[in-house]
Amino acid sequence: MTAAEVSSEGQVAAYHEILAYTVTRGDAEFIHQYAVDAWAAQTAHSGSKPIGVFFALVGLYLHVEHGFTGRAVQRAHMRLAQHPEPWPVGPLPTDRGTLSACEVLTFPEGDARDAMIRAWVVAVWAAYAGQRDTIAALLRRRGLIA
Questions:
Q1: How far apart are CA 139 and CA 58, in angstroms?
Q2: What whole-number distance in Å separates Cα of residue 132 and Cα of residue 145?
Q3: Where do the domains of the chain lie?
Q4: Which of 9, 41, 89, 91: CA 20 to 30 A from 61?
Q5: Rounded to whole angstroms, how far apart are CA atoms 127 and 26?
Q6: What angle do CA 131, 134, 136 make, to 5 degrees?
Q7: What does the alpha-carbon distance between residue 126 and residue 122 come to, in Å, rounded to a whole number?
């Protein structure tokens, strides 16, 4: 899906419904963070603030490749924000993944929807695979990963 397709009115409404769902989950994993990061990366555009795009990509990377929970991703974001710097955001991919907020909502609330949110994160991160090394290098330099 392209950023324009993902940002349609129906997708925005679906995203808001996902947020309402995830914020009430009360899960220790804090799946809400995954949805926030997937949406921010999937809908990023040339006018997006670099910090928002970069932090979303950090969240996707840390969850998909290092198994961080949403709470652990939040802590990583807070540590990064303590010492701001120019956040490297490379070119935005045209394709932003094969799943969208609307597709997530086709699954019933509970484990099935949570699994779909995780699949959405994986799909969006795959679209940004070209930025993996840049993100990993900054996180290693900042001591957030080994």
A1: 8
A2: 13
A3: 3-141
A4: 9
A5: 29
A6: 105
A7: 6
